[in-house]
Amino acid sequence: xxKQQQANQLDTFQWVGVSTRGKKLEGELTGxxxxxxxAQLRKQGITPSKVKRKPKPxxxxxGEKKISAKDIAMFTRQLATMLLAGVSLVQxxxxxxxxxxxxxxxxxxxxxxxxxxxxxxxxxxxxxxxxYFDDLYCDLVASGEQSGALDxxxxxxxxxxxxAEALKSKIKKAMFYPVAVIFxxxxxxxxxxxxxxxxxxxxFEGFGAELPAFTLLVISISEFMQAYWWIAVLVLGIGGYxxxxxxxxxxxxxxxxxxxxxxxxxxxxxxxxxxxARYARTLSTTxxxxxxxxxxxxxxxxxxxxxxxxxxxxxxxAEVSSGNPMNWAxxxxxxxxxxxxxxxxxxxxxxxxxxxxxxxATIYEQEVDDAVDGLSSLLEPLxxxxxxxxxxxLIIAMYLPxxxxxxxx
Length: 409
Description:
Receptor-associated Protein, 3-stranded antiparallel β-sheet, 16 helices, GspF/PilC, T2SS_GspF_dom, Type II secretion system protein F, membrane
């Protein structure tokens, strides 16, 4: 397995060879293995005498941009457009590679193009790069190759990738605001406790009177922050790292976090709608591409993005495999809204399930968009309110002794 993953990785190779005229040449070429690079050189009329993998810079600082999901979505849309315009597959890949400003994307597409030129199906070439093209993507391309409708399939895949990226961006935006509130509140409170409160403490020491309990509490917290702020930072850093590692390795923890986050006020509602949109969009795309419903449900489970929906979709798959209607299985899952179930039922009865699922996806993607916009409008005054309570509380704590002194006088 490790060797296969290593072979599938796209690397840069340095080569030295001799041309057909006996001239010594050297250069760099990208590929997945030394054997493939040698084969590419021979096709160019060069006899390789030395080929070696180019050493990576220290700490991996190569200066090249990483290939993002947006890059893959853009490539998919460009390829779909060119194929629909009648451009040949090989020519389209070469044109997109030449026009790419990201060197990593350029190298990836050239490697795929070489595979296709060598007679490999496009789906097979894509499967050699699982980091960028998942099983769902490759399966859809394979179905397009088998049906002879690769251009239309790529158009569907491009739409799917664009919608998926747009939805992901909205979810990140929804998650950003609560984190921003907590972060800003923590920073402002820490600055006040470490730098402002000590100034008041020096003034209070000259009073010679007993301070209110609230003021003493704030001063105690301030003294702790001044002396042990590094402990708080260390604990947060270590705690975050441990949780991240445990979340990555422990499936039960990931599932529990997914369940908990769906119950979170406001944000949980957005994530529920996003999961339904993902389910409907994935199922619509795969089913319309000719993938059997049971296999399409498998893909939808993997693309749901949440353990609760993943398990529910797998249960639906089991019931559909047993011969039950999908809308009936969805109702038994107790997780999908009635409107979605009714539209699926209509789609099954009319034979237009993919169209109905596409409409469901569009509706819920719009709801996610509206909810995120509403969340941003809601949290702007909430940020002000939280900061007002924190700062106001600290100010009251610092001025209470002055108010008491004034009442005594």
